[in-house]
Amino acid sequence: MHNVFKKNGDFKCPLSYILKQKKHNKIQTMKYIGIIMIVIGALVEVLSYVTDRFMNSGAVDQNWVQGLALLLIIAGLITHIRVTGKSSKA
C-alpha cells in the first residue's frame, strides 16, 4: 500500500496517487495500439491468402479486404510513431 503521509508528516491524498497511476497505465497501453493495428492488418492479409489458397474463397481478389489491411498497417505505423514520439518527449 502506498504511504499517504509525506516525510514531514503532512497528509497526502491517495486519490491523486491513484489517478496518476491510471494515467501512467493508460499511456503505457497506448504505446502498443499501433503495433496491435499492424499485427491485425498483417493477419487480415495472411488469412485472406490462406482462405483463397485452400478454400477458393476469392478473398485475395476483394479490393476492400486488401484495402482494409493496408489501411490498418499504415494507420498502425503512423499511430506507433506519434505515440512513441510523444511518450519519449514526456
Descriptive tags:
90 residues, mainly alpha, 2 domains
Shape: elongated
| Average predicted confidence as pLDDT | 78
Q: What is the helix tally? A: 3
Give the strand tally.
0
How far the N terminus sits from the C terminus, by CA atoms, comes to 27 Å
Measured by DSSP, the beta-strand proportion falls in: under 5%
Number of domains: 2
Q: Structural class, judged by helices and strands?
A: mainly alpha
**Main pleated sheet:** none
**Unreliable segments of 5+ consecutive residues:** none
Helical percent range?
Answer: over 70%
What's the alpha carbon Rg, rounded to whole Å? 22 Å
Helix and strand sequence:
HHH
How would you describe this structure to a colleague?
- This protein is mainly α and 90 residues long.
- It folds into two domains: 1-29; 31-89.
- The chain is built from three helices and no strands.
How does the SSE layout of this entry go?
Blueprint: H1 14-30, H2 33-55, H3 63-89
Helix pairs in contact: 2-3
Describe what is shown at a glance.
The chain is built from 3 helices and no strands. By secondary structure, it is an all-alpha fold.
